[in-house]
Amino acid sequence: MSYEVNGATVEADDHGYLVNSADWNEDVAKAIAAAEGVELSEKGWDIVNYLRDEYLNNNGNQPNERNMVKHFKKVWTDIPKMDTKVLYNEFPTGPAKQAGKIAGTPETKRKGGY
């Protein structure tokens, strides 16, 4: 599998995750999101950037949904009831896996968020 981005081919595995995470940039993220049927909102970009930051700057950490909710409760103070539904509104097939794919991180092997 691959993505076409700005006239270049970016290689991905059979599940759509980047083969080389160094190929990631915002245009690549947009192409993966389009392939996933996701339109990235400001909150969607917050999630993508959070997952990248955790993976790249926290020893390969890939937060599960529960940890994502805890983090964004502190960040998105305008949302009265921050829960997994908010994350699923941004990434319907699973915020940890689908957003992780768009963020260019490796596929996580764990199930669910809790």
List keywords for this structure.
2 strands; globular; 114 residues; mainly alpha; single chain; two-stranded antiparallel sheet
Structural account:
It is a single chain. The protein is mainly α and 114 residues long. It has one domain (2-103). 47% of the residues lie in helices and 7% in strands. The protein contains five helices and two strands, in the order E-E-H-H-H-H-H. Strands 1-2 form a two-stranded antiparallel ribbon. Strand 1 (2-5) and strand 2 form a beta hairpin. The radius of gyration is 14 Å and the shape is globular. The termini are far apart. The mean pLDDT is 93. It is found in: Cytoplasm. One of its GO terms (biological process) is tRNA wobble position uridine thiolation. Keywords: Cytoplasm, Transferase. It holds the Pfam family DsrC.
Sequence of secondary-structure elements? EEHHHHH
The main pleated sheet reads as: 2 strands, antiparallel
Give average pLDDT, whole number. 93
Tell me the structural class.
mainly alpha
Widest sheet, order of strands: 1-2
> What general outline do the C-alpha atoms trace?
globular
Distance between the termini: 30 Å
Number of strands: 2
**Beta fraction:** 5-15%
Helix content: 40-55%
Determine Rg (CA atoms, Å): 14 Å
The total domain count is 1
Query: How many helix segments?
Result: 5
Runs with pLDDT <50, length 5+? none
Subcellular location: Cytoplasm
Function: Part of a sulfur-relay system.
Family: Belongs to the dsrC/tusE family.
Keywords: Cytoplasm, Transferase
